[in-house]
Amino acid sequence: MRPALLPLAALCSLSCLPTARANPEGPVVRSGSANVSVNGNTLTIQTGGQTTFLDWRSFNVAANETTRFVQPSATSIAWNRINDPNPSQIFGRVEANGVLVLANQSGFYFGPNSFVRAASLAVTTAPITPDMAGGGPWQFTSLPPLASIINYGTVQAENGGSLYLIAEKIFNHGILSAPDGNVGLYAGKSVLVSERPDGRGLSAQVSLPDGTVDNQGKLIADAGTIALHARV
After folding, report:
1. Would residue 13 count as lying in a domain?
2. What is the mean pLDDT of residues 173-181?
3. By residue range, what is the domain housing residue 64?
4. Is 12 a domain residue?
5. Contacts (Cβ under 8 Å, ≥6 apart) of 116
6. Assign residue 107 a region: left if phi > 0, alpha if psi is -120 to 50, beta otherwise?
7. Per residue in 151-189, is it b (16+ CB within 10 Å) or e — as a string?
8. DSSP character for 41?
9. Whose CA is closest to 160, among 121, 120, 194?
10. Which residue from 2, 6, 3 is spatially nearest to 171, judged by alpha carbons?
């Protein structure tokens, strides 16, 4: 796939990215339980219970690395707050058998050969707190205006799951897939996400659409739904 041209602001954000470092670093468990282990180029996070909230100093995955979440079930939720002044850079693999929430107020860049797969997945630049892991809907607000989510890779939710990107600026040049599920690209001042009562993925509602969504890649949700919300 030949990369398409990006707006000047996005190009600047990419040019300022440091070289991708090792697998995610500096984990601290804020709620729930988790055991973090390293075997070669694979970092494994085994969580216990329905919800776990972790802080990370950085969350980067190099091309030859894998970060794997092992969760009790497909509905178990692993919250990940990334406290890095730089965007997270994903060039390798991120895998989770449950629901994965990745939040970095500095943004995300998924490289051309990156691969991310989870039962359901929400990637956001909005701030998150451990209170959000206590149950009930998740309110994503105060999205940083200069932070972007840029995807050139393959990001997948499992069959019937949900895949949401939530940021002020979203650029997709890769593949976003949620067969028989939901794909959502949401640029809004307030996005409310909740677990579906039937246990099949997540649902989302957007208040005051804002920002930019630029899709030049593929959105796949066979027998499911695709939604894009931005300022018009």
Report:
1. no
2. 97
3. 21-229
4. no
5. 90, 93, 94, 95, 110, 153, 154, 155, 156
6. left
7. bbbbbbbbebbbbbbbbbbbbbbbbbbbbbbbbbbbbbb
8. T
9. 120
10. 6
Q: What is the pLDDT averaged over residues 119-126?
A: 96
Placement of tokens 């970092």 in the chain: 43
Q: Which two tokens stand for residue 188?
A: 């809004």
Q: What is the mean pLDDT of the chain?
A: 88
Tokens 């949620």, located at residue: 178
Q: Which pLDDT band holds residue 211 (cuts at 50, 70, 90)?
A: confident
Give the CATH number, domain containing residue 212: 2.160.20.10
Give the per-residue pLDDT at 2.
36
Element (H, E) at 28: strand 28-39
**Domain assignment present for 118:** yes
Q: What distance in Å separates the CA atoms of residue 69 and residue 72, rounded to the nearest whole number?
A: 10
Distance in Å from the first CA to the final CA of the chain: 28
> Higher model confidence: residue 195 or residue 190?
190
d(CA 144, CA 142): 6
pLDDT for 205: 74
Question: Total structural domains in the chain?
Answer: 1
List the one residue out of 195, 190, 215, 50 whose CA is nearest residue 137. Answer: 195
Query: 65-91 pLDDT, tens per residue?
Result: 999 999 999 999 999 999 999 999 999
Q: Is 105 exposed, middle or buried (0-12, 13-18, 19+ CB in 10 A)?
A: buried
74: tokens are: 């497909």
Domain annotation covers residue 83 = yes
